[in-house]
Amino acid sequence: MTAEVKAKGTVSQAGVAKSLRVGFILSKNFTLSAFALFVDTLRLASDYEDRSRRVHCDWDVLNGSRNFVMSSCGVQVAPTAPFADPCNYDYIAVVGGLLSVDEPLDAVSLAYLRKADAAGVGLIGLCTGSFVLADAGLLKEHCACVSWLHHREFRARFPGQPATSAQIFHFDGKRATCAGGSAVADLAATLVRHHIGEQAERNALEILQISHRRDGTDTQARSPLGLEASDRRVHVALMLMEQHVEDLLPIESIASLISLSRRQMERLFRETMGMSPSEAYTKIRMEAAMRMVTAQPTRPLIDIALAVGFEGMSHFTKRFRQSFGQTPSQARRQGVHKR
After folding, report:
1. What is the distance between the alpha carbons of residues 70 and 76, in angstroms, rounded to a whole number?
2. N or C: the chain end with fewer CB closer than 10 Å?
3. Which domain-ending residue is among 177, 207, 237?
4. Which of 274, 284, 293 is nearest to 243 (CA)?
């Protein structure tokens, strides 16, 4: 944790814990679970047991109007406060949602985020809120934590923006971004611990039935080959392979990214996965190809070949047959028939 966060402190001069105040901005079709997990962690950390008084924490749902905001599951949430001085809050949290939505935040909301940034208020992107912050130019010089599910799209939209899907959240004091899901509670608990204290964090996590604290560097719950990698470095390597099925990474580069030599990574993969890194990479690419072939029946096969790192159909078809015992065309016909 940076000195800047610690400077906000956990105890006032009078010896009473300071409040942690968070303003939420809900994007169109936002993810309800991301909002609910974060705000409920604050609620439970704010008081003793389940009394829910706003003793140590406070929060508002901010909006420029009184209109309800629709979540992606259809539940609507009403704003509780207008856009006031952003310095009233320690953080402004943007709750993202469906990526197919045009203009997830209106101009007034974006202007408020920029005003908060200029005032030195911390900004948080929950779920796909990282896309909103990046699109607004508010993640410069910060690394974005993105769900493995959206990593490729994030890279395509923001090619110059540093991003990771190897951890559940990233927090550097001024910016926090979170992959979503249950990791939202972990991020909220981290803020509680550093602004209020460990007792408040423990109260929230125990009532939420979260058995142990996860830090931001914990890996996302994703197994690209459907197998649990017992070594974190192998897990991260597999995630990197999955994120780079088109723009293939050399095995040496992957090894370097997980702080190993190629020989060390080869040995580690053999011990934990029973295959070489190259074999694992090919298997990941072929499984991605099979998903595209069967789920996108109108997409040209040559496009799929290129999307998984092949330069032409001949080599792609040969590899596909070796992996699945049939050609891409045969797999597609069977997939269409099953539908």
Report:
1. 4
2. C
3. 207
4. 284
Number of folded domains that form the chain: 2
Q: Answer yes or no: are the C-beta atoms of 189 and 204 closer than 8 Å.
A: yes
Is residue 234 within 8 Å of residue 269, measured between CB atoms?
yes
Using the 3D structure, point to which of 207, 233, 259 is the last residue of a domain.
207
Q: Which residues of the chain have pLDDT under 70?
A: 1-18, 336-339
Q: How far is the C-alpha of 297 from the C-alpha of 166, rounded, in Å?
A: 31
Long-range contacts of residues 179-182, Cβ cutoff 8 Å, at least 24 apart? 179/127, 179/145, 179/146, 179/147, 179/148, 179/220, 180/31, 180/33, 180/34, 180/126, 180/127, 180/128, 180/147, 181/33, 181/34, 181/147, 181/221, 182/37, 182/210
Query: Residue 255 belongs to what domain range?
Result: 224-339
Residue 215 lies in a domain: no
Length of the chain, in residues: 339
Domain co-membership, 69 together with 182: yes
* Of 257, 284, 315, 277, the residue nearest 152 (C-alpha): 284
Cα 126 from Cα 31, distance rounded (Å): 9
Q: How far apart are alpha carbons 224 and 323 in whole angstroms?
A: 16
H helix intervals, 104-175: 107-118, 129-135, 151-157
